[in-house]
């Protein structure tokens, strides 16, 4: 599903965010990406989302070198990836329902079909009863679940999450991880960047460890 | 998507057709949604929107008014062209019968539209009447005025008239051909000057409208920065991001155009009475030009187009800044 081939990323010609990254992720896998802040986790995810381009090497997603995508093709590429952000990135001027419906609106899904899928996604994260609420009325954990519902509403084959449990207490974090495992069980490839080592250790999935922009460990699932 | 095991080829074609038509429908749906959504956003800040539209209107009124004045001057021009005539003075010894023959000869020239013979006696009578010098001239023994032929040319361009004058001077019995082209030329030059000034102003003020709309949309883009970022992250195309702003720009342009139209009508009515009175005091019939249907449509169309263009520039600049690298 994902392949990094000798990928390096420099910013401003000097700072080396990633160096010689080499790994592969199979379709349907679930894995964690760990490391201290500044180790390069976010840079790596941004490369997969094609928010940035590698300075060296190739990033392949579903067999395609995404650096070769024309910028007009990038939106269509991104529609195949669901992304959960640490700061949720919800739009505060519209309801939970419309936040989750946004990817479908962008893809031009017919409204009745969209409503069905939005409700299914909200139901999955346990927030169907809050569909009319505004994001500001929700707790941090609930907002994160809305972010997850938005990421999965168009059934992406790849789900990326950047510190999805960053500001949540252990119980809420465990709930969120269970959600990700559920999506993985139905065939979605899931890649989660996190520094919550205790939680990761408990979940027994494959772990990629980054340190100062280098891949220092690749532990297979226990 | 559908799990039918053996899709018939015909069904495949039909499903492709439905996919295209559903894409078109969703595209139209988004257009409609953004059209109303951007109007609602404008109405949410009525005073701010009105001020922007007023600024656009003021920028449009001046070139539009100048254009109207030039348009009416062109009508005046056409009337004056009809009175562009040449006068051929005949030689002194020509008698009335000869004069009539010369008149016919002049009328036969292909470039001549019509001729009118003024015999020496008629010329004298006209002269006396117009100067009120009947007594003084009556005392002259001989009529000193030659017979003349007033020629209206087919072509009224100064060069054509001048060429015709040269031709007519060659006709035997014609002493001299007079033409007063200076004022026609001056008028043509003035009209040309006016047209150029109007064009320059239209370009300048059109740029002004672009800047006004562009700046307003830039602020709107700035205030929805996060939204643009999020929808781009989850796969929105540039066209999708641009669309609501383009509609806002078009609304601003249309609103500004309507206000400009209202200002022009009001101004026209306000000035109509004194202009008519002034014209009548000169014994002329002149009323202020008004925007007709075609003129109004042109005004509204160009203001909407300028709004759209200003928005396009503002959003595209923002999108270009967002591109990775």
TrEMBL record, chain A:
**Domain ABC transporter span(s) in chain numbering:** 2-221
Spell out the GO cellular component terms annotated for this protein, sorted alphabetically and separated by semicolons: plasma membrane
Q: Where in the cell is it found?
A: Cell inner membrane; Cell membrane
Q: Which Pfam families match?
A: ABC_tran
| A molecular function GO annotation | transmembrane transporter activity
Q: Which InterPro entries match?
A: AAA+_ATPase, ABC_transporter-like_ATP-bd, ABC_transporter-like_CS, ABC_transpr_LolD-like, Cell_div_FtsE, P-loop_NTPase
Q: Which UniProt keywords apply?
A: ATP-binding, Cell cycle, Cell division, Cell membrane, Membrane, Nucleotide-binding
Protein topology in the membrane: Peripheral membrane protein
Q: Which GO terms describe its biological process?
A: cell division
- What quaternary arrangement does the UniProt entry report? Homodimer. Forms a membrane-associated complex with FtsX.
Q: Which NCBIfam families match?
A: FtsE (TIGR02673)
* Function per UniProt: Part of the ABC transporter FtsEX involved in cellular division. Important for assembly or stability of the septal ring.
- Sequence similarity: Belongs to the ABC transporter superfamily.
Q: What is this protein called?
A: Cell division ATP-binding protein FtsE
The taxonomy runs: Bacteria, Pseudomonadati, Pseudomonadota, Gammaproteobacteria, Oceanospirillales
Q: Tell me the name of the encoding gene.
A: ftsE
Automatic annotation (TrEMBL), chain B:
Q: What Gene3D superfamilies has UniProt attached to this entry? A: 3.30.70.3040
Sorted alphabetically, the Gene Ontology BP terms of this entry are: cell division
Key word Magnesium present in the record? no
**Sequence ranges assigned to domain FtsX extracellular in this UniProt record:** 86-177
Provide the residue span(s) of the region labelled Disordered: 1-24
Localization per record: Cell inner membrane
Any one GO CC term of this protein is: plasma membrane
Q: Where is the ABC3 transporter permease C-terminal domain?
A: 201-317
Keyword tRNA processing found: no
According to the record, the segments passing through the membrane are 50-70, 197-217, 250-273, 293-315
* Keyword vocabulary terms for this entry: Cell cycle, Cell division, Cell inner membrane, Cell membrane, Membrane, Transmembrane, Transmembrane helix
For membrane topology, the record states: Multi-pass membrane protein
Q: How does it assemble?
A: Forms a membrane-associated complex with FtsE.
The cross-references to PANTHER family, in alphabetical order and at most eight, read: CELL DIVISION PROTEIN FTSX (PTHR47755)
Q: Which family does it belong to?
A: Belongs to the ABC-4 integral membrane protein family. FtsX subfamily.
User: What functional role does this protein have?
Assistant: Part of the ABC transporter FtsEX involved in cellular division.
Its recorded name reads Cell division protein FtsX
Q: What is the lineage of its organism?
A: Bacteria, Pseudomonadati, Pseudomonadota, Gammaproteobacteria, Oceanospirillales
